Amino acid sequence: LDDSLQKAKDTQSTMLLILIDILNFNEIKKLFGAGKTEDILSELEEAAGKILRGRTDLAVRYKENKIAFSLNGAGREDVKMLVDRLTKAVISRFLDLVKAKKIPESVKITFGAAAYPDEAMSPKELIEKASEVYRQETVVEHL
Q1: Max Cα-Cα span within the chain
Q2: pLDDT in tens, 73-124
Q3: Which of 30, 74, 113, 143 has its CA 20 to 30 A from that of 104?
Q4: Distance (Å, whole) CA 127 – CA 27
Q5: Which residues are CB-contacts of 55 (< 8 A; sequence separation ≥ 6)?
Q6: What Rg, from alpha-carbon coordinates, does the chain have?
Q7: In the chain, which ranges are E strands?
Q8: Distance from C-alpha of 1 to C-alpha of 113, rounded to nearest angstrom
């Protein structure tokens, strides 16, 4: 995140941070164990990583139950489109895994986003803003 933000500052461009949070992470961990929970996070990271646009975008694990996306050149105006794409990618992958009984029947995720320089100037501020802004709960369930 530090490198992405510095690149945006150096090139006088924008940067968007999107956080994906698994809300029922502790419940999943308790029911399925640490190994299966790690598999779910890896699947989430892989599915969501498909929307990355190029070498300057990155997806990294943040804390125990979150994935952080740094998208240089993107701003607040791109949030809806990117979150819609993330949601479709994640739901599609998760539904396949639910049907194959490889993950629980309900995984609850939220998205948060913050933009540099419009909403935050430091990595800490970006994370704080993304944690409170654009909360959209998506429940992926077996249909």
Answers
A1: 47
A2: 999 888 888 888 887 877 777 777 667 766 666 777 788 899 999 999 999 9
A3: 113
A4: 24
A5: none
A6: 15
A7: 15-22, 58-62, 66-72, 106-116, 136-141
A8: 14
